[in-house]
């Protein structure tokens, strides 16, 4: 059957994107092996305006089981997974949305791609992992949850819509048609309010999705150019291309921003790199919510780049060294505030660990003193391996004599804890699988 003009153009953009997915990783919550299959020019593409697929065949974890979407009700269908930290961060927001609109909408979270992260020791099945996850967050999830045991949701929704990352939300209008597809923290609230008010522009939603796909496809093509420029050591071209990729979509291509900073730091453009990083830091201070969280993650990547490539050679000039010192101090202050907030009693274990993971590189970049301070936090939290790494990092950051003595004392204390953890901290005597490290989205 021939494709409509608009569907043909959209399919072409999707094909370009899928063909390039292996070239540059996107900022998604999926594991590396979850690369998209080639997108064909197929009328089965799920696009805004199409009837929503069936939800039959899902295994229900929370809420009343249903074989189909309820007619006359707007649905918020969220694709997520237990191993996906970005998904974890959207739970409170989706719960607030569910409570705010009450009976006017139905929110359904579908755990998909679950099998792409292996079971850990002690986990009996994928279903039990989903059930345990939901049970331990019962007070934070105010909506229905189902599990895509057979992959029917992945095929009919995610793969048909050519979605390659989670969390992904599908807004389905009261006529049962897909109205909007995207991240739950990036435009969903506005689209949902418009749907309920009867002012939603479906043509604009289609065009938005098409423009996004085209921008992403362009970024993937640029990634090939970046690989060539890097291989041929055309560094100015590589820096410019990495910047172009980042500018196309800083959220999808955040890693390209870090690549640009690293290239500039190592190719004689330290001052430009610092100015680039400082611009992101200044922007982060003006943002709130999810947008700020994304910028903070990008800053953590920048901080690690600074730590790997310190500006300390004489060719850099005193002004550049001073600029780096000031920027490092600002990043460290930001990291310390994130960590302080993370240790508040009301924070969950996963929220605390995620915040410390984010704040840690911001702090370490500044000085040996900051590294030792954070090592102390890790020791108090009984995270001994991380504490050991931080002490080693502090000793590599030119500590003064008192800091070196402090580091050596902490090493001795740490050795004692590692030798007899059950005496020093009874909780540490538990088997490791009782409290495994949280899986990181995108790295199974």
Kindly summarize this structure in a few lines.
With 444 residues, this protein is an alpha/beta fold.
Attribute tags:
444 residues; alpha/beta; Glutaredoxin; six-stranded mixed beta sheet; 16 helices; disordered C terminus
Please describe what this structure looks like.
This protein is α/β, with parallel strands linked by helices and 444 residues long. The chain folds into three domains: 1-45 and 201-248, no CATH class; 46-193, Glutaredoxin (3-Layer(aba) Sandwich), CATH 3.40.30; 249-434, no CATH class. It has 16 helices and six strands. The chain has helices at residues 5-20, 85-101, 126-135, 152-159, 188-197, 202-231, 235-248, 254-266, 270-284, 289-308, 318-342, 349-364, 368-380, 384-395, 401-419, 421-424; strands spanning 59-62, 74-80, 105-111, 144-147, 168-172, 178-182. Strands 1-4-3-2-5-6 form a six-stranded mixed beta sheet. Helix 2 (85-101) links the parallel strand 2 (74-80) and strand 3 (105-111). Helix 1 (5-20) runs parallel beside helix 6 (202-231), helix 7 packs antiparallel against helix 8 (254-266) and helix 10 crosses helix 12 (349-364). The model is unreliable at 1-43 and 422-444 (pLDDT under 50).
